[in-house]
Write a structure and sequence with these properties.
Shape: elongated
Largest sheet: 5 strands, mixed
Helix content: 25-40%
CATH topology of the largest domain: GTP Cyclohydrolase I, domain 2
Radius of gyration: 20 Å
CATH superfamily of the largest domain: GTP cyclohydrolase I, C-terminal domain/NADPH-dependent 7-cyano-7-deazaguanine reductase, N-terminal domain
Distance between the termini: 39 Å
Structural class: alpha+beta
Number of domains: 2
CATH class of the largest domain: Alpha Beta
Strand content: 25-35%
CATH architecture of the largest domain: 2-Layer Sandwich
């Protein structure tokens, strides 16, 4: 992290700041510490995805399971944040996911430089591999600061989706999913 601190100090000087002034003296150290936290997806092991056999407790569940939450990531083109909500659903077959693991996988993949299109694919691939569901869906709606605070300087959201299995092939299942999340989008 000493290298990051040195580079941040250099950047401060390049943009016209005095990196030795009182308010900025510890900024390089804080930025290095922040980068370690924000980009933890590069150094962390992928979270373990806890699963349970469907039906072992006398109940076999075969309906849609829906989870939603917030996420924060960074655009790989400008290194500025993009953030928003995710809406994840799956239809279990023989395996049920540990629900907190969805958020952990979203967090893991978000903690890297990303594009939103790759982010949805990476998350779905990991969760689909873990539980082999009848269907799986993920919608991410995000605000990109590379669009709102620079460049176009326009507010707006980007929405991406990845639908597989029953969510892709069954119109009624797909419609049910979108109806459930429509008030949140």
């Amino acid at each position: 992290m000493d290298k990051v601190e040195s580079l941040v100090k250099e950047i401060l000087a390049i943009i016209g700041e005095n990196p030795d002034r009182e308010g900025l003296q510890d900024t390089p150290k804080r930025v290095a510490k922040m980068y370690k936290e924000l980009f933890r997806g590069y150094s962390a092991d992928k979270p373990n995805i806890t699963t349970f056999r469907n039906g072992t407790d006398g109940l076999t569940y075969n309906q849609m399971v829906l989870d939603e939450g917030d996420f924060y990531s960074h655009c790989e083109h400008h290194m500025v944040p993009f953030f928003g909500r995710y809406y994840f659903a799956y239809i279990p077959d023989k395996i049920i996911l540990g629900l907190s693991k969805v958020a952990r996988i979203v967090d893991f993949h978000s903690a890297k430089l990303q594009i939103q299109e790759r982010l949805v694919k990476d998350i779905v691939e990991d969760l689909e591999k873990a539980c082999k569901p009848k269907g799986i869906a993920l919608v991410i709606k995000a605000q990109h600061l590379c669009k709102t605070m620079r460049g176009a300087k326009k507010k707006g959201y980007m929405t991406t989706s990845e639908l597989r299995g029953d969510f892709l092939n069954n119109r009624d299942t797909r419609q049910e999913f979108f109806n459930l999340i429509s008030n949140s989008l």
